[in-house]
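Take a careful look at the protein record below. Let me know whether the C-alpha cells fit the sequence:
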Amino acid sequence: MRKTMQTNDDIPYLLRGIKGIATQSSVLVSSSPYLNEPRLRDWIATSFLRRSGKDRPTSADSYELHRILRDVLDLDLIETLFSEQRLKWPELDKWFAEGFSSTFGVKDLLAHPEGSLGHTFGKYLTDNGFEIDIVPRFEPRSQFEYYALRSGQTHDLEHIVTGGNFDILGELVPYFARLSNVPRFLDPALAGPVNAGQLLGALRLLSRTGLHYQQSFLAALAAAQAGMRVGEQSQPIFMMKYEDVFHLPIVEAREALGIRAVFPVDTSEASLAWEEYR
C-alpha cells in the first residue's frame, strides 16, 4: 500500500502546528514539573472533578496539595528569588528580618471590643469549635517556610477583611484576593510558584461548582470577582500584620491595613449545594 502524503488542508485547523517530540523515556516526561508529578495529576483529576461528600472534607484536598507541592517546587530557586526580591524591595526585607509570628490565643481575641477584628475572629473560633492554627505552629527554616507560616496564620483573618464568608464558596474571596494581589508585588518568576497552591485550590472550587452545582456557579463567580477587586487595589496582603489592628472595628481595620474595594458576597446559601455542608 502506498502511503498518501497528508497536506495541511487535511489536518483540522486547531490541530495544525503539533510537532511530535522523540524521547527515550519509558514514562511520561514533560517540560512542566507539575505534569511530571503523578500525585499531582491524580490530585487535579480528583479535586477538580469530584462531587462533594461527607466522607472526605474539601479541606483535606488543601493539606494533600501542600504536601505534593513541597516536593514539586524548586525550593532552592524560590529562596534565591526571595533573596533577590528583598534587595529590590526594602519593605519585604524588613518583613522577613522581623520574622513576626502570632502567639495569641482565643481569650486574647475575645478580650477585644465586640465588633472589632479580633473579637469577631475569636467569636468565630469559639462558635464553631475551631482552632486558631490551620497547621501547627513551627519554626520556619527558610524564607518560603516563613511565607507559608504567615499565610496559614492569617488565612481566616483574610476571610474577614476581604469580605469572604466562612463557607466553601466564601473561600474563593481570599483565594482570588491573593491571586490578584501577589503578582502586583512579587516578580513573575517568584509569584508563580508561591501562588501555585492558591491557584489550584481556587480553580478546583470553580470547576466542581460549575460541573456539579451549576445553581451556585454565578455566586462562585461573584465571590471570585469580589476577591480579585480587593487584591487588585489593596496593599500587599501577605505582609499584613493583623495583630496590630485586632482592637479596631473591621471597617477601620481594613483602612489601617490598606485593604480596599471590599464588596462582601453572601455565599452561605449557594454553598449548601455542596453535600458536605448540608
Remarks:
- The two ends are 63 Å apart (CA to CA).
- Residues 33-277 form one domain.
- The chain is about 55% helix and 0% strand.
- The chain has one domain: 33-277.
